[in-house]
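>> received
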Amino acid sequence: MKLAKLLLYILVLIGIFFGGYFRGKNQPTPQPPNQLPNPNPTTSSTQLSIPEFSNSQLQNRNVYIPILMYHYIRDNIDCEKDSLGCSLSVAPEKFSEQIAWLKANGYQTANFSQIHDTKYMIQNTKKSVILTFDDGYTDFYTIAYPILRANNFTATVFMITKRIGTDGFLTESQIQELSENGIEFGSHTVSHVNMSIADESRQYYEANTSQKTLEKILGKPIISFAYPSGFNSPISLTTLKSLKYIYAVTTAEAIANLKTSNPLLLPRLRISGSLTQENFEFLVQNGYRQKSTTTTTESVVQ
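>> returned
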């Protein structure tokens, strides 16, 4: 009797084992979940490392940095026919005077990769200023850059990528040359779209495509973004975060505080064509304009 029970127990175990085995053999092989395609497998902002900024290490440091906003550096503009273009254009001699004053008063230029580098920020003891140029006009290469280079200054160009190589805008080879010589590039979207009214898919396209276009040209991470005309929405911030942008600039006028400002909503100081040297100095040092400098053309946000 005991032997019969033992044999029955063994047969049950064998049945369970082989039954499970063959059921497993008949099941389809588990497949990995679907993944979104990489829009550019060869170059990705997440593959290119950026130093991690630590606010805690700078608690006792002054991290106020004026971010200046330029567009054109040119002269001979017909202000009666093009008042906006006139306002956006700083004459070369004015620009030279502004740069000379910054240098003489102890300012050094920084870019967005540098201010995100904790080591750089800790070691930096001079006053910093960030020079930004929106749109990516050819005159940055022909006029502004030689002036900057002569003063050992750098800058960030926010490029409308659809305009690369078109009349009046930087070419790919010029962008590469400038980058090799210390000029940083950021995105200004593909087509200068209004980010406050564009839907989520359009905003993603504009921010992602422009970023990947510049990364393909330069082989460097594109971590900064300038909202066209300063317009943005909550969707804009979510989109930029998802694409690993670290900084974004607006047209709100103030001196940026790297401790307290939202890094995706940094203010800038707009340098208009009619700004006098005296008022330029006041603006850089105080973050707001003297009342005498406020004009109709200067109130236009671009």
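>> Confidence is low (pLDDT under 50) at residues 20-46, 293-302.
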